[in-house]
Amino acid sequence: MLAYERTGSGEPLLLIHGIAHRRQAWAQVVERLAGEFEVITVDLPGHGESPAFELAGRTVREAVTHELNALREELGIERPHVVGNSLGGLLALEMADAGHARSVTALSPAGFWVNDLDYLYVRGLFTGIQALARPLAPVAGTVLRSKVARTVAMGCFFAHPDRIDPATAAADTANMVASREGIKTFFTSAYRYPGATRSDVPTTVAWASRDLTLLPYQAIVAERRLPHATHRWLAGCGHVPMNDDPDLVAGVIRETARAQQAQQA
């Protein structure tokens, strides 16, 4: 079973992090939304405190879908609002297509490659970051106290890495190293998003304007494949916008959830 935390009360809101990250990525957003929603944060397979990612003869898509469905059943939640960043954004969109989401907020979602070079760039980027993280992890608690060091180590993910708490940065680095097998498994396929199969779920695709991981021109592909969605920019944010501007991110999530609530009224 995937590791998770539940906080707050209200309609269920599931938050899914991206590849190489962990559920604590959402901490500042949870603080802002737990008064309105029951917020569930989860560690993806092979990440954080979740078990190793075992395909057992399944595709990556099949395996991760099974794990997320098992989590919903464990929690007794049929259709939460779903929010995801990067790979988590792609998974959120697929949950909507399967009828398992009330609303979806996808933050710089994966799967909207313009061509194979986009995918190869991302895979190469993570390979390089992991190579940096392995020797850094044992001394990260000391080295990452420096704003300059955090900028060098994490600038590809955040527009403002200097704002990240040093202890959080060190823990994220350790998670990057510990999750290497899970990361490798997720990168066994290009994992594209073909396009929505249903348009009755309120959906927002919010792309970070300073994204250096999934480059912002992929937002154009997302607009073509998701014509029913609301498309917007997260100004001044990097690929993981929850740290750069948690107020903005929480506001976008809130607006999307309220669109669903208005639809049901």
Strand order of the largest sheet: 1-3-2-4-5-6-7
Number of strands: 7
Mean pLDDT: 94
- List low-pLDDT spans: none
Question: In what range is the share of β-strand residues?
Answer: 5-15%
Question: In one word, what is the shape?
Answer: globular
User: Whole-number radius of gyration?
Assistant: 17 Å
Write down the secondary-structure element order. EEHEHEHEHHHHHEHEHH
The biggest sheet amounts to:
7 strands, mixed
Helical fraction equals 40-55%
User: What would you call the structural class?
Assistant: alpha/beta
Number of helices: 11
Termini separation comes to 35 Å
Describe it for me?
- Helix 1 links the parallel strand 2 (11-16) and strand 3.
- The chain has a seven-stranded mixed β-sheet with strand order 1-3-2-4-5-6-7, sandwiched between helices.
- The termini are far apart.
- With 265 residues, the protein is α/β, with parallel strands linked by helices.
- It contains eleven helices and seven strands.
- It is globular, with a radius of gyration of 17 Å.
Task: List strands and helices in order, with pairings.
Blueprint: E1 4-8, E2 11-16, H1 27-33, E3 37-42, H2 60-75, E4 81-85, H3 87-97, E5 104-107, H4 116-136, H5 140-143, H6 147-154, H7 166-178, H8 180-186, E6 203-208, H9 218-225, E7 230-234, H10 241-244, H11 246-264
Parallel strand pairs: 2-3, 2-4, 4-5, 5-6, 6-7
Antiparallel strand pairs: 1-3
Short structural summary:
The chain contains eleven helices and seven strands.
